[in-house]
Amino acid sequence: MSILIKKRDGVLSGVSHPFFVLVPALALGFCNNALARDFFDPDFIKSVGQSDPSSIPDLSLYATKDAQAPGEYRIDVVLNNNLQETTDIQFVEKKDPTTGALKLVPCLSIAKLTSYGLRSEAFPHLKEDTNGCADVSGIPNFTTDFNFNTQQLLISIPQAALSTIAQGFVPPEEFDDGINALLTNYQFSSGKDYEANNEYYNLNLQSGLNIGPWRLRNLSTWNKSAGIQSDWDSVYLYAQRSIIPLKSTLVMGESSSLSSIFDSVPFTGIQLATDTDMIPESLRGFAPIVRGIARTNARVVIKQNGYQIYQAFVAPGAFEITDLYSTGGNGDLYVTVEEADGSRQNFVVPYASLPLMLREGQVEYEITSGKYRPYDGDVDEKPFTQATISYGVLSNTTFYTGLQAASSYQALALGVGQNLGDIGAVSADVTEAWSKKKDMDKTTGQSWRIRYGKNILETGTNITVAGYRYSTSGFNTLTDVMNTYNNRYGSYTSRSLRNRTNITVNQSLGSGLGSLSVSGIFEDYWDSNRRNNSFNIGYNGGFRRFNYYAGYSYSRYSWGDSGSNRTVEDDHVVSFNITVPLGDWIPNTYATYNVTNSSPGSTDQYVSLSGVALENHNLDWNVQQGYSNREDASGGVYSNYRGSMGSINGGYSYSKHSQLINYGMSGGVLLHADGITLGQEMSETAVLVKAPGLDNVRLENDVSITTDYRGYAIIPYVTPYHRTSVTLDNTTLSDNMELPNTTQKVVPTRAAIVRANFEGNIGRRAFLILKRTSGDYVPYGATVTLTTDKNAQASIVSDGGMVYMSGLKDNGEIYARWGTKSGQQCKATYSLAATTEGIAQATAVCR
């Protein structure tokens, strides 16, 4: 067998010729049958030309398979084949009690093991050493395996030693209240109509202040039109914070009550309510508990509507699965228990749900107290209190109740939701109300409500919500009563709702045949002939790459007394829409045609071209031309650009009676301890990326976002109480940047601004060839660091004294070490040639 090693100029130019003698020597060394295990003798390195005994490196750390140097590694922690987290773990050197060989083991504290689900209380002898590392030798069958190539720590813990942890559970200790910051979201829009000679301006400012766990929020608006004085208005102002032990949120100020049982009521006061985002996603909403018995160590597979939604491994005996994700819909659960001997058990658990239903043992509540906050400034701000609670009593049953109390209004509600299995899910509740409107007698009334939902898999029918409410003539809502206390209009009386029916049905027509949707709302009122009826039917379909929609809607509104004073309005609308992709000719472009006919005899039709442009698809554009039998031609052009520091938009439109030019901009401004960062509009919870020196680096979370000139960026939307990975795209790093860890994980609390810190090596990259004063190369396996930062991650010398390093200045000093003796370490001063591209090369003498 012949071995050909091609020597390339530059990279291997410093490799000594004895290196080629080393290859067969290594091969012969590893064939020594006298050894009980693989062993590499460092004397081989000496034998290829190094005369100084001190040049033999200490490689005992690498003498066993897969061994590495101790230290801190950023790795994926995988427990029983499930990824737990990506984090920094300290690894220490330890002797294997069986072989006596050195091996690398993770230093895991008892708290860390507990966060992974270990029932630490079951092992009273579990202790930590002086470095905080738990001695896991007393846990039966506990094993760890560090795969350096994949950067994974594989942990195996017997199921009996683990507590039951819901899917998606995040320990509260990881919740991050974020940084102190001042923030503002802005939305500005303006337009000028040249035909009507009118201009308008609008500005929305959503401002906030975060201090520790507290958040202060305000929304203010400014409007200005030609000839009309500008107007500022504050929509709301409130302070809030998370109460983690109660899984709740506290709000003080201007907000609105929840609408699960009663209609939502605006208030100024205080509110404490369950924050369902603190609950693991697999425990939110309603899902039945799946119970069964396994004869052996078994695998449990659960499917719904033909899709696998859950898998678990259980020990012999009775099992209980409580952490199924709520699918928000309906469809029986098909459960298969696959035993170790290959046999199977199959059974069905009926499943149907409605939004207000909770799983067994789950509680949601709300307490609100304050003053009514009317939108009309002439209405009295009367005090009231509202309290509601929902409780999952049994696996398929939810009870809920609530009360409202004010000087002129009291109400009590009581209801139940039930999973009826094959029949579907139904809820029924009644609200008794005692009310007194201004200048009127007291009244008493009831409101009955029934809701139903069902998914019929066999026919593809999904009845998402069907509801019916009946209210007696004396029933009023809290808002109905509060609005009568109006100081301008005197005794104001709203019409009371009598009947309301609503239904939404979606029907799949089979593979390739599209879907049909039907919805309707029908209302009538007491003491008037007012009726509101609306009905919609629509069909969605597709043929190859074409998508089309056809729909019909009907609405009738009537009011006034019977006879000649009664007014009736009927409206019929028929529409058709088809979209055709033009990607074969124009990338990322679509053509759309739409026609709408509405009574009485009005027809509108238009054709448009729309699409996205630029490398990151952050430019949206649309060109439209239309025709109406009322106003002749109309058309317009519109575009919107989303960048790292915000969005800008502009457009032009015309019709028979107008020529309008409009433009606008939106974004977010964040003031923090390190300065000011601009970005897109921030949602309730956001992330500040801090990567000093890493400018113009793209984020994988949103390719339209890049770091600014200082290395900062804003990720405007993340989910609270949920692990979010923040990742920088290392393909966008420039030549003078290197990022050891491209991903950070954050777990923000509600409305927090959390910081994701990245530390990159900023500077030159180079291959350095290190020689000693004797002329020999610095030995293979030596570790090299900058003298200015000896604790930084070390580089390792390869053959011929070559080492790769990053984050270098043009001139500097490095420190090399290959043992503990004084003759096994040295310092070298290097100097890199003036170049701006690629990887530099230099030779340095180590003294």
TrEMBL record:
GO terms for biological process: pilus assembly. The gene is elfC_3. Belongs to the fimbrial export usher family. It is a multi-pass membrane protein. InterPro entries: Fimb_usher, Fimbrial_membr_usher_CS, FimD_plug_dom, PapC-like_C, PapC-like_C_sf, PapC_N, PapC_N_sf. The keyword Transmembrane applies. Keywords: Cell outer membrane, Fimbrium biogenesis, Membrane, Signal, Transmembrane, Transmembrane beta strand, Transport. Its main location: membrane. This is Outer membrane usher protein ElfC. PANTHER family: FIMBRIAL USHER DOMAIN-CONTAINING PROTEIN YDET-RELATED, OUTER MEMBRANE USHER PROTEIN. GO terms for cellular component: cell outer membrane. GO terms for molecular function: fimbrial usher porin activity. It is found in: Cell outer membrane. Residues 40-189 form the PapC N-terminal domain. It comes from Klebsiella pasteurii. Residues 769-832 form the PapC-like C-terminal domain.
